[in-house]
Write a structure and sequence with these properties.
The chain has 97 residues and is an alpha+beta fold. Helix content is 45%, strand content 12%.
């Protein structure tokens, strides 16, 4: 089940990135959802997750209102000790003094 959800998000991201979602009904079909289920998912993505997903009626496709992409992944967070050792985007492993 998780893999199918991940695949759906990756496919949605690819379609949006290519400007090839089609209208909401077409996108729902591409994602294997009912149109109503697509609107519910879209609302959750936009309102609950803050994804800047917008529909362009002129182009008849969804697009991101800001540069970026939709990812479905685990992101490792650094602990406080590791954060203190960060220096300009690099982790400092030894002291110079």
């Amino acid at each position: 089940m998780i893999q199918s959800i991940r695949n759906r998000f990756e496919y949605l991201n690819a379609l949006v990135g290519a400007g090839n979602t089609g209208c909401p009904k077409q996108l729902a079909e591409k994602l294997g959802l009912s149109e109503r289920a697509w609107y519910k998912l879209r609302d959750e993505l936009v309102h609950d997750s803050g994804i800047p997903l917008r529909y362009s009626p002129e182009r008849q496709t969804y697009c991101y209102a800001q540069p970026g992409e939709l990812l479905f992944q685990f992101q490792h967070k650094l602990d406080d000790d590791s954060l203190e050792k960060l220096n300009g985007g690099w982790t400092v492993h030894c002291s110079l003094y």
